[in-house]
Amino acid sequence: MKSSIQNFWEKEIDSGPKPENGERFDIIIVGGGPAGSASACYAALEGNKVLLIEKSSYPKGKTCGDAVGGKSLRHLEELGIDKKLKSTPHFEFDSVLFSSPSGDEFKVQLPNNELAGYVFPRLQFDWILFEHAVELVTNNGGKVVQNLTVKKIIYEDIDGGNDPGDKSKDQRKIIGVNGKSGKKEFEFYAPLTIGAGGVYCPVADSLIRRTYDEDLVDKQKKHYSAAFRQYWEGIGGIEKQMGSIEFHYVDGVLPGYFWIFPIGNGISNVGFGMALTDIYKQDKKLRGMQEFVIHGRFAERFKNAKLIEGSSKGWQLPLGSPRKVSNKPRRAFGNGCLLVGDAASLVDPFTGEGIGNALLSAKMAVSFFDKIVDRRGFPLEKGKKYQAKIWHTLGKELTNSYKLQNYTKRGWLVNLFVKKAKKKAQLRKILTESLTSRDAQVKLTSPWLLIRQLLF
């Protein structure tokens, strides 16, 4: 996918002078992906001295579907990177195409030719956001460090004594992190640490598993999906720069779904996703199920297509589906810390999209911190308010997406739904509104509405 001329997002990013061992900050952010970079941007804009830690270095890719939905666009405009992103190769999608196991299709399109979102390869999306974070953080007196792995979270008991072995839940607070770069170890301190390191975030690991005795990956795998993606060039029926992204449900590999997301210039992100609980019941791996779809139902569209070498990757998605115990996502706060993005399990259960919720949670987390009031440690009470606000804002949407995910496990229901959507203007209207309205999403998962739309 690289040209002979190096693009600006393929160059190394100079993150400036390194922090000193023992240096203190207002906020430490662990993870330099979209959630961490956005947290750093918002924090620096609020006048905080920030330390942003990235375990690898840029340029770097991220295995993902690459779609950036409408809810992300406002944040990209706020942060001032929307124009730079749009100057790079991308695909604009104005509609979403769905197909059923029986082969019926329908398209959900926004009115007045509005855009539903973009598809940016994560190599360039993450690079641009991280570079902007470096600029904002360093201009405000903070530091950014790459190639540093956080090894330990530093705790202190509530009375002030350093007691990293204390397991008594809320009786200790996070005051900093210990990391390693090469052979050197470093410690950094701040009243607030934000965990933005994705599904295996060391802050989330320490907070959730060790402090609150919950597994980072729940034992039943009910709230995780796995996905496999490849890049293909020359797939039939793909527009060059604007059109639909596609979700397909195929007999033989249900309850998984197959997607085709064009990224521009004839190249598409092609993938297959399924809940982990369902994967364990299958005889095939995700790669095998994707090959089954490509060489079966989609053989005609792929007959002249070429797989881009080295693009086959798999990953896990921590879903924002409600837990039975709390009716909320996984705990996202503790004494002295907050979790954002994938580390807080905020991925949409139905579409697998996580960037929009990552950017939203980043802005929300920073809004709860006051460097004067919270200088002695970010309190548990504010963390509770953060979690409540996250769920108040996203709860209905994530719960409804979880319901939709479960509906699509029934092939007959998907067949009936798609068949009715092709014929009924009212159902298509609800689907169109659901792309931009949370209220419409609630209607979409109402059993009574589904009965009325599907049976009458």
Please write out the topology.
Layout: E1 27-30, H1 34-45, E2 50-54, E3 67-69, H2 70-79, H3 82-86, E4 91-99, E5 105-109, E6 117-119, H4 122-139, E7 143-146, E8 149-157, E9 172-181, E10 184-189, E11 192-195, H5 202-211, E12 224-233, E13 242-248, E14 257-264, E15 267-275, H6 276-279, H7 286-295, H8 299-302, E16 306-307, E17 313-318, E18 333-334, E19 337-339, H9 355-367, H10 380-407, H11 411-423, H12 425-434, H13 438-444, H14 447-455
Parallel strand pairs: 1-2, 1-11, 2-7, 4-13, 11-19
Antiparallel strand pairs: 3-6, 4-5, 4-6, 8-9, 9-10, 12-15, 12-16, 12-17, 13-14, 14-15, 18-19
Helix pairs in contact: 1-4, 1-9, 2-9, 9-10, 10-13, 11-12, 12-13
Query: From the structure provided, what is the oligomeric state, counting identical versus distinct chains?
Result: single chain
Helix fraction by DSSP (H/I, runs of at least 4): 25-40%
Individual helix count:
14
- Note the overall shape: globular
Relative strand content: 15-25%
Tally the beta strands: 19
Largest sheet: 10 strands, mixed
What is Rg?
22 Å
Please state the average pLDDT score.
Answer: 86
Give me the secondary-structure category. alpha+beta
Extract low-pLDDT stretches.
Answer: 160-167
Spatial separation of the terminal alpha carbons:
49 Å
Q: How would you characterize this protein structure?
A:
This protein has 456 residues and is α+β, with helices and mostly antiparallel strands. Helices cover 34% and strands 24% of the residues. The protein has helices at residues 34-45, 70-79, 82-86, 122-139, 202-211, 276-279, 286-295, 299-302, 355-367, 380-407, 411-423, 425-434, 438-444, 447-455; strands at 27-30, 50-54, 67-69, 91-99, 105-109, 117-119, 143-146, 149-157, 172-181, 184-189, 192-195, 224-233, 242-248, 257-264, 267-275, 306-307, 313-318, 333-334, 337-339. The strands form three sheets. Strands 3, 4, 5, 6, 12, 13, 14, 15, 16 and 17 form a ten-stranded mixed β-sheet that branches. A six-stranded mixed β-sheet has the order 7-2-1-11-19-18, with helices on both faces. Strands 8-9-10 form a three-stranded antiparallel β-sheet, covered by helices on one side. A hairpin with a 2-residue loop joins strand 18 and strand 19 (337-339). Helix 2 crosses helix 9 (355-367), helix 11 (411-423) crosses helix 12 (425-434) and helix 12 crosses helix 13.
